[in-house]
Amino acid sequence: MKHLLGIEGLGRADIESLLGRAEAHLHGGPDASHLLRGKVVANLFFEDSTRTRTSFEMAAHALGAEVLNWTTAGSSVSKGETLLDTVRNIEATGPVALVIRHRSSGAPHLAARHVRCAVINAGDGTHEHPSQALLDAFTLRRRWGGLDGRTVLIIGDILHSRVARSNLHCLKALGARVVLCGPPTLLPSGLESLGAEVTWRLDDVLPQADAVMCLRVQSERQSESFFPSSREFSRLFGLNAARAERLKPGALVLHPGPMNRGVEIAPSVADGPHSVILEQVAHGVAVRRAILEEVCR
Amino acid sequence: MSSRTTLLRRGRVIDPRHGVDGVRDVLVRDGLVAEVSETPLNVPDAQVVDAEGRWVLPGFIDLHVHLREPGEEGKETILTGCRSAVAGGFTAVVAMPNTKPVNDSVLVTEYVKAKAREADLCRVYVAGAITKGLQGEEMAEMGALVAAGCVCITDDGRPVMNAGLMRRALQYATQFDLPVMVHEEDLTLSGKGVMHEGHTSTRLGLIGIPPSAEVAMVARDLVLLEETRGRLHVAHVSCEGSVRLLREAKRRGLRVTAEATPHHFTLEDEAVGDYDTHARMNPPLRTRRDVEAVREALADGTIDAIATDHAPHGVLEKQVEFDKAWNGVVGLETALGLTLGAVREGALGLSRAVALLTDGPARAFGLPGGHLAVGAPADITVVEPDVEWTVDATRFFSRSRNTPFHGRRLTGRVAQTWVGGRLVFENGQMKESR
């Protein structure tokens, strides 16, 4: 694979190969520090992100690469430079891969059409966040052995969630049933044709879930009137302690972070026995090593 | 205009206004149609043009083009826009007022007319703004614009969101019997949307524009039209709901006309593909069902005209993130081929298609031309119906290249364009020197 622009379009074999590679990298794995020695990976973060950027950075270092960290703060973007000019300028310094995070859906696709090096989508607008979906799948696979026949419930702002889209494609490809749940204003049309089941009746589907993924509620959505208040959202769609009681025994709880504790997820649930949230973070580095290794081959 | 006499011999003349479809000789004298004859004519002093195997049509009229001058001459000028028009078989175009400065004054109207005279290729009619600066707040001086020659008023590209103001504009325009052309979009419904709201926008994570953004405004304006008894022209109809309302309004005898663009009756929202900004337009490309509804409306007379919404943009406006890209597509040079594509697919008859490019737009705005009766202006488009060609944006006469149709195979090509009896375009070449 030349680029990783999204999970859509990847086959089950592609995904399993990446997850297999990530397994080898987990907990240090075999020494991989020679794989990208002398090469440069450029992190282009047009949108703030600490966790994803750090995770890619650690993964690149572990493979022996140098990391060029580029952010919009104080950059030529503030002087009106276009995305393509920025990307071409960074490319001219000779990196082996560009890791791009951008507010606009499709920005990495635009970049990929105009550069020769690899492009990795580190989150584009409300489109995809493939490395997040891979680490989520990786986390579930390590717990379960496989995803076939499992039911994964994703709750919250599906409309604006790149995590939800990438996870939908990834989990479906690995054989899971995916149920998306949120207020009707945040459930865009056409989700069924992407292979999801869609509902706003959380309490009906909760007991069926083998894993529940809570999405971060973006507080600005409230002022856009997608829902009346955080309090009402929490009452209808929050994974609180009472709801957690109704989970299947052994069901897993995930969250891509950062969390709004007490809104989409109760602190007792986030830190409770079902939670694999910190495992997700830990797995991020291994999965991103696998991604870099794959596209930089 | 030329005083020469020309005889277009044995072409298939299709003149929907007069129900003509058959082989005829067309004699042109002093810039006007002098005779249309079933039997061969013998005119010794005439320059003879062999039109056998070709179609001889009234010159096409486009009610909706952006010539970008004054203000954005890097995208298009009145001269390059006119070249693009005659290359596409258009002998008359209506220039939209969203120039820089906006055409809300006699000064700009006169400027556009002067530049068009200088270009001296096709007829350029001018549309004035409804509101000053297209701001949707105060009416522009409609009477002055009409006196300067504006053939309609429109805030094209922007809706008049203030319903009270829109009502008064329709009322006020009745004293000039002036069509008010509207871009139907409720901005509170379209919001920050960048494409049709549906499966593709969900898949791509792009903000969608629901059809209600257009349909709700069509409904509002039809209600206002009924009260004011004015003339309304609905620009670039994109969806089934609008078509249904327009059909009903026409049945009830309201003075409403409408147009549709070749891209809206050809492409679906899926044309956005992987964020192809050339498929970004406003209103957005809709679904197959909407495309079918627009085609039915073209065929049954609900929609009066095919208009291109010719909207030239430079690379800087298109080679960017999808949500930052500008809307629009250059349209003049692909309109005929795309229209004939719909004919070949059985969506509408040939005579109806020709009417949509000629008689329909002429009647909608009360323009001369659009037919070939004796005494009509000799604005004529000669078409080679069976020639297949491939759209090559790099060879457009327009100064801009933004089209989703680059590389598409089309059948039917403009062989000659005559304006006022003068040959201005022939076989891919401008005939600018007189």
UniProtKB/TrEMBL annotation, chain A:
One of the protein's GO biological processes: 'de novo' UMP biosynthetic process
Molecular function terms from GO: amino acid binding; aspartate carbamoyltransferase activity
Catalytic function, reaction form: carbamoyl phosphate + L-aspartate = N-carbamoyl-L-aspartate + phosphate + H(+)
Pathway: Pyrimidine metabolism; UMP biosynthesis via de novo pathway; (S)-dihydroorotate from bicarbonate: step 2/3
E.C. number: 2.1.3.2
Binding, L-aspartate: 79, 162, 216
Cellular component terms (Gene Ontology): cytosol
Subunit structure: Heterododecamer (2C3:3R2) of six catalytic PyrB chains organized as two trimers (C3), and six regulatory PyrI chains organized as three dimers (R2).
Protein name according to UniProt: Aspartate carbamoyltransferase
Native source organism of the sequence: Melittangium boletus DSM 14713
Gene transcribed to yield this protein: pyrB
